[in-house]
Amino acid sequence: MRHGGQILVDHLKTEGVERVFSVPGESFLAALDGLYDSRIENIVCRQEGGAAMMAEAHGKLTGAPGVCFVTRGPGATNASAGIHVAMQDATPMVMFVGQIARGHRDRGAFQEVDYRAFFGPLAKWACEVETTDRLPEYLARAFHIARTGRPGPVVVALPEDMLSDLADVPDRPAAPTTQGHVGTADAQAIMAAITTSTHPLLIAGGPGWTAQTGAELMSFAAANDLPVATAFRRQDYVDNYHPNYVGDLGLGINPGLRSMFDEADTLVVLGSRLGDIVTGSYEMLDPSATCKKIVHVYPCAEELGRVYHADQTFVATGATAIATLAQQAPTTDHLWSDWTAKGRASYESFQTPIETPGPIKLERIMHWLSDNLPADTVMTNGAGNYATWLHRYFRFKEYGTQLAPTSGSMGYGFPAAVAASLQHPDRTVIAWLGDGEFQMTLNEMSTSIQHGAKPIAIIVNNGRYGTIRMHQEKTYPARVSGTALVNPDFADLARAYGGHGETVTKTEDFEAAFRRAEASGKLAVIELVVDEQVATPGLTLDQLRAQGEAG
Predict the structure, then answer these.
(1) From 3.40.50.970, 3.40.50.720, 3.40.50.2300, 3.40.390.10, which CATH number describes the 362-550 domain?
(2) Average pLDDT of 496-500?
(3) Quick one: which of 279, 289, 271, 258 has its CA closest to 202?
(4) What is the per-residue pLDDT across 508-529, written as a single tens digit (0 to 9) for each?
(5) What CATH fold (topology level) applies to the domain 184-349?
(6) How many helices (H) and strands (E) does the chain have?
(7) Rounded-to-integer distance, Cα 251 and Cα 2, Å
(8) What predicted TM-score, i.e. pTM, was given to this entire model?
């Protein structure tokens, strides 16, 4: 006989779980008891949103479901932001929510929420376990759903009396994972679509990627002289130094890549959704008339044809398709050499720094980071204009080095960096953050110190919510409302938590400050105090306002 918490933890071991992220609650005491001598590391966080984002980042880094425990009511609702990130980013994740006792339902009991109803639209699956002896059934199904097809988050509600009840029930083994299949005939059909094109473009993205997949794709692209673009915040899927890489289809897109996308007559989409960011708010690719041949590989049948008609569809991950494509004989006539070279030249040109105003030059700092950090450095960020310097100027060299929410969630960058540092304690982890972004989850500095994570957070401090101010100036110029921030001394705050703090006001001082932060061997914060005119890599605040006034 085991209590439900022990049954749960024993199944986590079956699934190979070695680390979970949590904020404790009295609603899942039996699960905490099960974790006590389990040898599963419990990373105790400061707020459920941070815990959920750490679990999501862990899922991105490992390919296995990240696991999070939160308590009922406000604990679960706090965590919902991380569930949204995991759903939009197709990240495997399982979140356990403590629930009120079964006999108290529908009375408006303390912190009562219907989690099936609340998380149903947010998660891939939301359920509640009614009886202790069915826990193995629900747990095996939850992990299977989280990691197969299009991966995503699963929410499992656990009534506290169900968790503490005893049951004599056998464990259930983990279900095997399947991600579809692309056979030789399928690969030949994709090759035929490419060879009948004049301007093909390959787009890499989506779940199920590996370092080997990236290498196989670029080898295939080189053998056939094909250009490869990556989807939004998937720049680490391939080596950005490869001559066939032409850039990312993200926010602040290179105008040259946009022209290339417009001119392409065939899109071979290898694992990515054709969402609004990749397609420029659906303006670069008209859903009613694409005027292009589309080959779409994606692991979820419901996504294929959801917005765009595709001429060929395959229910599989991009990785599965690439593994088979890599075995095909290359085309004999390389008709696209000039087309690919033009795309690469445009990418290289877009890397040329545009000077930002003031003594802190973000483009120079980002180029320094790109040129000097180890190839396996993990870069994280959340949402904000500050991230466009990272997207534009940093060159990713290895898979698994970019952690960023395609959902555009603020507050993600720092918790993700903590999770990355815990997973890869021997690697450099950089959180590139804005002042507004950092303040959403900076309390997780305490988590970082407690558990020995040592990310280096670089804060671009312009004293405002920069992205919203940009849109404000474009739409309602000079009518500034609700976007100004009063900030703490971030370096002092880091020191107060027990970390290392630096404040940098001149570009020339950055390298020394970074080296001191690196040498500290602990959590570090480097605050970059930028000129108030800094807005985007190409436009100042005054220029944005002038654009808005010009209409």
Answers:
(1) 3.40.50.970
(2) 98
(3) 271
(4) 999 999 999 999 999 999 999 9
(5) Rossmann fold (3.40.50)
(6) 21, 20
(7) 51
(8) 0.95
